[in-house]
TrEMBL record:
Keyword check for Cell inner membrane: no
Keyword Transmembrane part of the UniProt annotation: yes
Signal peptide: none
Pfam families in UniProt: Pentapeptide_4
InterPro entries (UniProt xref): 5peptide_repeat
Protein name, entry field: Low-complexity protein
Transmembrane segments annotated in the record for this chain: 191-211, 243-263
Length: 269
């Protein structure tokens, strides 16, 4: 049976004086306005801020657990000692400093918090802040997946048991592998490094299988032709078809990774 949530709707309100120790739990603030106001130890749990205008406000030790910010403007606001567990942001202008001081402690909550802000910054076209958010999201994801299969913390051992723990280990391995190859889509430098490793591999195979390992010249020549072999420009007749096929597949994968990085960068602008 459905019950009323008891959420109170407050529309077109303005706050122009300091607020301390107040409790605004489960409220819906529509078009709330506050400019250069200090909020101290205020409980905003489970509130919704819709089209709020809170510029240059200062929030000290406030609780924003489960809060949703929608189409709001929090530019210039500072948050010190605030709690943002399960908070979400949608088309909201907020300084990226919040990522330095507002991230929840547990990694699973931190990655959700950073992901929400990353998507929010992408919506408003703030590429710099989106990049900052995704770096925190990826780091938190790595730690979370690692703890999921290895940590002895009660939360992880209760949630990840048996096959779920094995699955988490597989996800962590996949994450680490992709991070090594291309930084999980965020590092063109790591992708270039991976291509260099492939070129060195091609060089080694050519010297050992089709050259003279005792001659330095053989290594130099193999290194010089490795880019051509990798790009498919040169196909030595001595190479087996299976080897050429493997190089072709690697080239396609690397090219796909490269295009993905480029598309992601442009999509955030």
């Amino acid at each position: 049976m459905l019950k009323d949530s008891g959420r109170e709707k407050l529309s077109d309100k303005k706050i122009d004086f300091p607020v301390s120790g107040e409790r605004f739990i489960n409220k819906l603030f529509e078009r709330l306005v506050a400019l250069k106001v200090e909020f101290k130890n205020v409980d905003f749990r489970y509130c919704i801020f819709d089209a709020a205008y809170l510029r240059n406000c200062r929030f000290e030790e406030c609780d924003f657990t489960g809060v949703r910010f929608i189409n709001s403007n929090l530019a210039g606001c500072s948050f010190n000692g605030c709690k943002f567990d399960y908070a979400s942001f949608d088309k909201t202008y907020v300084d990226n400093d919040i990522l330095d001081v507002g991230c929840p402690g547990p990694e699973n909550l931190k990655l959700k918090f950073a992901r929400s802000l990353r998507m929010n910054y992408q919506q408003i076209g703030d590429a710099k802040s989106a990049n900052k958010a995704i770096r925190i999201e990826l780091k938190a994801t790595e730690v979370h997946l690692h703890k999921a299969w290895k940590s002895n913390e009660s939360y992880y051992r209760k949630k990840y048991k048996g096959l779920d723990r094995v699955k988490a280990y597989g996800e962590w391995l996949e994450f680490k592998l992709l991070d090594l190859i291309w930084g999980n889509g965020e590092s063109s430098w790591k992708l270039c490094r991976a291509v260099l490793v492939v070129l060195l591999f091609i060089t080694g195979v050519h010297v050992i299988g089709f050259g003279d390992p005792s001659l330095v010249k053989s290594y130099v020549n193999a290194l010089l032709i490795s880019p051509q072999v990798f790009l498919g420009i040169l196909k030595p007749t001595a190479y087996p078809t299976s080897y050429i096929t493997i190089i072709f597949l690697i080239r396609l994968i690397m090219f796909g990774f490269f295009m993905s990085i480029i598309i992601k960068r442009f999509n955030r602008r």
